Amino acid sequence: MEEFQIPPPSKVNYLNAEYGLKSWLLTKDHKRIALLYLGSISFFFFIGGIYAMLIRLELLTPAGNFLTSTTYNKVFTQHGIIMIFFFLIPSIPATLGNFLVPMMIGAKDLAFPRINLLSWYIYLLGGLVTIYALLAGGVDTGWTFYAPYSTTFSNSYVVATGLGIFISGFSSILTGLNFIVTIHTMRAPGMTWFRLPLFIWAHYATSLIMILGTPVVAITILLLAFERLAHVGIFDPAAGGDPVLFQHLFWFYSHPAVYIMVLPGMGVVSELIANFSRKNIFGYSFVAFSSLAIAVFGFLVWGHHLFVASQSVYAGMIFSFLSFAVAIPSAIKVFNWSATLYKSSISYETPMLYALGFIGLFTIGGMTGLFLAALAVDVHLSDTYFVVAHFHYIMVGGTLLAYLGGLHYWWPKISGRMYPEGWGRFSALVVFIGFNLTFLPQFILGYMGMPRRYHYYPAEFQVLHVLSTAGASILGVGLLIPLLYLLWSMRYGKIAGPNPWHLPGLEWRTQSPPLTENFAHTPVVTWEAYQFAPFEEMEVVGKFGESRAEV
Amino acid sequence: MEQQRAAGTIGMWVFLVTEIMFFGGMFLAYTLYRNAYPAAFASASNHLDITLGAVNTAVLIFSSFTMAMAVYCTQVGKRQMQILSLILTIILGLTFLGIKTVEYSDKYRDGLIPGKLIPGRPFNPDLLTFHLLPGASIRNVEMFYWIYFAMTGMHALHMIIGVGLLTVLLIGSVRRRYSPEYYSPVEITGLYWHFVDIVWIFLFPLLYLLGRHLAHGG
Question: Any long-range contacts for A374-379 (C-beta under 8 Å, 24+ apart)?
């Protein structure tokens, strides 16, 4: 493997190249924009977490005595809206994607740096409008905004919240646009498509979904707002309209949206698995094409949200079949990750713990999705806690774990410092335990018939709810600890150097933190992705439990 | 610079794809409701002023020609023609919007603005002069007009943005900002303008030309 000479690190990097608030708020540097996003989405995650805490507190007891019904409706609605639109959808693409896409392809920045900054401001504007709506009185329709409740009967701030989501959708579209153009036109010499890290393939596929799907939810929200304001009747049966049309339009975006949420996580996991087992990903092209397949198939399955919504049985059968089909590319990834791990040199640093957790929890989430894709089973499980547990396994057990794993993995590159490994492993364990304790009981609850979005329930469900709330508090603690030690490490962490993990990726072949222009000279790529040294020459890892970064 | 020019063009094409998806939702609603209420849609469509619609179509097609001229002239350095073409395109765009304003005010006069869009003036056409085809219900006619206003309104909004962009280009051209060395913004705006034109090409027959054979017969 050719040795790529890393020039002696300069004292100047993207963090200290310019000082002052203006240099951050008017930056064109994709790395600074990534950090701006990191701060903002952490803020929204915190708010969404507060709503989660309120839900779990209410569900400790069978009677609905902590919150009124209307308030509870607002709480779960707002939990969903904040978490989905203001945390999960931007999370990995806007932070890790923005930071790493140019670096991994050997470019100085994205194709449209000012549009990148604009996307952050649009995201903030959307977030502010939504927060205004929450503070003014909130919205109680469920994050799914079904007509006719949202169009006619709800007395809450539907239009204002919708406006906030509409605005933030443009942030998504611009990010996706930027990534697509960048990946097509700005790869370094020698960086062919099949030498790209799988992180890039995943973000490319995600960007395709972003640009094709988000405009549809934009027009859907606009139509909803007009129906509510002008009483026109496109979703109103009395006027000849159809409320199920709203559901079709809404889910045409919102199903692909869940792939926007999970695909970047899969990209991160591919990086973590390959790099922490020191082995090229098994079946690289299969994993790459499976990302594209998920993006394409993801647009064909929206009807599985309408199985019990008076959609025709024949349409239901087709959507059911397609929903089974869309699981195949995801399964291909899981098989390939597992095959990568087999007979490889695994080390159990924090990022790897999160990646392994992802594989297990995503598999559970995915398989329970198959139960829901089966028409007859879905009739029983629809609108129960089974669905809630299913999507939380994927969004939290999947995406959130991948996000944390990626954050820890690239933290030395982003900040120039190492996080404390002991605390990292400890929190990963706490998160894993807390998460499973929260959501595993919910599968059982759903199967037994506990409906979702209800805040009072029969007494026999209480034990499971108490377990779930206990798990939620453990999960909350597990998520708080990294916030503290990552901030701590920015000042007191061990200096990381350009390549603390000793890995071949292009982003590791420049200083940490990077220069503003990423590379001192444009790299010429002559090696494949994940090209590790031949097995015999691989360094021996220290004692079990010792981090590679310490060896 | 060549890479940046190519990147800009690809970026605009990707953006136009998102615009297709955006308008697509409304085209879906149109398709479903036209299929459900063909008579009502035909009645309502007949009542639109086909002359004004056709003139608007010709205006837009011609404006796409002048826009293409503007791009070409910038690329070869014919500055006078570049400026003239941009001015013509702006005038044609404003003409389109002017005719649309006439159409909209006619709808207002006839009480055809749907729902409570105009508070105090609900949908209330004079049923003596408004010819309803057999099988058409006035409620579904109102649905047509809702879709008509939503789609042409969204289209008009994009036209206004386009005219704004063209004005920026005009000012820039006068200040000698765009030349054979740097014509990318003109080219990209041209793409946007052609897209807005194409959306209208779809809107005109779908909204104005329904059931026209029935208008003359019955």
Answer: A374/A320, A375/A307, A375/A313, A375/A316, A375/A317, A375/A320, A378/A304, A378/A307, A378/A308, A379/A307, A379/A308
Alpha-carbon distance of A111 to A252, in angstroms, equals 29
Q: What is the ipTM of this complex?
A: 0.83
Tokens for A535, please give them.
Answer: 């097995």
Burial (CB < 10 A; 0-12, 13-18, 19+), residue A544, is: exposed
B15–A177 CB contact, under 8 Å: yes
Q: pTM, whole model, 2 decimals?
A: 0.91
Q: Which residue has the tokens 């209420």?
A: B37
Higher-scoring residue by pLDDT: A357, A3:
A357
Helix (H, G, I), strand (E, B) or coil at A417: strand
Q: How far is A254 from chain B (nearest CA, A)?
A: 14
Residues of chain A with C-beta less than 8 angstroms from the C-beta of B32: 242, 245
Partners of B7 on chain A (C-beta within 8 Å) are 111-112, 181-182, 184-186
Burial degree of B159 (CB within 10 A; 0-12, 13-18, 19+)? buried
- Residue A534, Cβ neighbours under 10 Å: how many? 7
Comparing CA positions, the residue from A540, A537, A510 lying closest to residue A103 is: A510
Distance from CA of B133 to the nearest CA of A (A): 17
- Tell whether A173 lies on the interface with B, counting CB pairs under 8 A: yes
Tokens for A474?
Answer: 């453990």
Q: Is residue A148 part of a domain?
A: yes
Tell me the count of A-B CB pairs closer than 8 A: 108
Q: Which residues of B are less than 8 Å from A116 in CB distance? A: none
Residues 6+ apart with CB under 8 A from A520: A7, A10, A510
Distance CA B13, CA B191 (A): 8
A125 lies in some domain: yes
What's chain A's length in residues? 551
Taking the Cβ of residue B10 and every Cβ of chain A, the question of whether any pair is shorter than 8 Å is answered with yes
CA-closest candidate to residue A394, choices A250, A264, A204, A274: A264
Instruction: Give me the number of domains chain A comprises.
Output: 1
Cα dihedral A215, A216, A218, A219 sign: positive
pLDDT digits (tens, 9 = 90+) for A495-536: 998 889 988 889 998 988 999 999 888 888 888 888 886 544
A352, A268 in Cβ contact below 8 A?
Answer: no
Contact present, A204 and A293 (Cβ < 8 Å) = no
pLDDT digits (tens, 9 = 90+) for B137-195: 888 898 999 999 999 999 999 999 999 999 999 999 999 999 899 999 999 999 999 99
B1 touches chain A (CB under 8 A): no
Residue A41 lies in a domain: yes
CATH number of B2-213: 1.20.120.80
- First and final C-alpha spacing in chain B: 62
Cβ atoms A113, A30 nearer than 8 A: yes
Q: Give the mutation candidate from B2, B17, B20, B21 for the A interface (greatest A CB count, under 10 A).
A: B21
Distance of CA B57 to the CA centre of its chain: 9
CA distance A400 to A264: 11
For B211, phi then psi, to 5°, come to 60, 25
Closest to B40 (Cα-Cα) out of A152, A151, A233: A233
Q: Of A232, A249, A299, which to mutate for an interface test with B (greatest number of B Cβ within 10 Å)?
A: A232
> Is residue A129 domain-resident?
yes
8 Å CB contact of B25 and A231: no
Q: At what angle do helices A284-298 and A313-341 cross, to 10 degrees?
A: 160
What are the backbone angles phi and psi of residue A505, rounded to the nearest 5°?
-60, 150
Domain of residue A38, residue span: 31-162+176-189
Q: Do A219 and B18 touch (CB under 8 A)?
A: no
